[in-house]
Write a structure and sequence with these properties.
By secondary structure, the protein is α+β, with helices and mostly antiparallel strands. 17% of the residues lie in helices and 38% in strands. The chain has 2 domains: 13-146 and 223-280, L,D-transpeptidase catalytic domain-like (Beta Barrel); 150-221, no CATH class. The chain has 5 helices and 24 strands. The strands form 6 sheets. Strands 4, 5, 6, 9, 10, 20, 21, 22, 23 and 24 form a 10-stranded mixed sheet that branches. A 4-stranded antiparallel sheet has the order 13-14-15-16, with no helix packed on it. It has a 3-stranded antiparallel sheet with strand order 1-2-3, with no helix packed on it.
Length: 281
């Protein structure tokens, strides 16, 4: 989904433990959903999981796409519950992230997670899920630049009734008006009468009812600010990152990544070392 960010130096786990255990765990425990007892129930509108969250008897119903989906949730939730040491835990159902040391929660934060929809364009298909399981923080980056995957251009083309084309480095595409679309020095532009004119790098490239996907690495494929101030790379294009879309936090709204509030992603960037385990269920 994104280009692999550069790795950051890891923090000593002993220093991290000493620092974090000095924080007050009660900051988050009063509002965090707990990993409580679970009961599986069949209902008329599908399979649901009822959770006794706080011992009060109040229940929260979780919806699942299938029994296999529910079993995967249960398996990975149990894996997270058995985990030890310093780790991050993400509940897709609760749309919430916790940073935990031993039995103490040192950060509890709402998050936006994948919306679970499927995009079809031509012969291609993308399903926007956040995979459950255990991942590892592979690298961290401040002021990240996003290089959108192809689904962004397919989604935009579909929304605007456009065809989808690809502009490759070194290629010249003849347009209907006789000009040529090409890339020079990492920037897309048009050649007219032998003169090259660069196109705006913050706009989509649309000619002849076609949206052209710029090549990876070009300035037209790099977007600033879309991932907020920080990102933590979990591999395979999946990230923990900030967002300019504050209203999406707490919703199933992403294409697979986990979005965080500014203050929460900054905390993670500052205090979570590369190599930290991340349990997603």
């Amino acid at each position: 989904m994104d280009a692999a960010p550069s790795a950051e130096p890891t923090m000593s786990r002993t220093r991290l433990y000493t620092y974090l255990t000095s924080l007050t765990a009660a900051l988050a425990l009063s509002v965090a959903p707990r990993l409580g007892a679970q009961t599986l129930r069949e209902t008329g509108d599908g399979l649901r999981r009822a959770a006794d969250q706080d011992g009060s008897g109040d229940e929260v119903s979780y919806s699942f796409k299938s029994r296999a989906d529910s079993l995967a949730w249960s398996k990975n939730r149990s894996l997270a519950a058995r985990s030890t040491g310093f780790r991050l835990v993400v509940s897709l159902q609760d749309r919430h992230l916790w940073a935990i040391i031993g039995r103490d929660t040192v950060l509890s934060a709402p998050a936006a997670v994948a919306k679970g929809t499927t995009l079809e364009f031509g012969k291609k298909e993308w399903t926007f899920d956040t995979p459950r399981g255990m991942r590892t923080v592979l690298s961290k980056e401040a002021d990240p630049i996003w290089q959108p995957p192809e689904w962004l251009y397919a989604e935009t083309a579909l929304e605007n009734g456009l065809k989808l084309g690809h502009l490759n480095s070194g290629e010249k595409i003849k347009l209907r008006d006789g000009r040529y679309l090409t890339v020079r020095d990492g920037v897309a532009g048009v050649v007219d009468g032998g003169m090259f004119a660069a196109l705006p790098t913050d706009e989509h490239i649309v000619f002849d009812n076609t949206l052209f996907v710029p090549p990876m690495g070009s300035k037209n494929r790099k977007i600033e600010g879309e991932l907020g101030k920080y990102r933590l790379n979990l591999g395979d294009g999946y990230l923990l990152h900030g967002t300019p879309y504050k209203e999406s936090i707490g919703l199933a709204a992403t294409h697979g990544c986990v979005r965080m509030r500014d203050e929460d992603i900054e905390w993670l960037y500052d205090h979570v070392p590369v190599g930290t385990r991340v349990y997603i269920y």
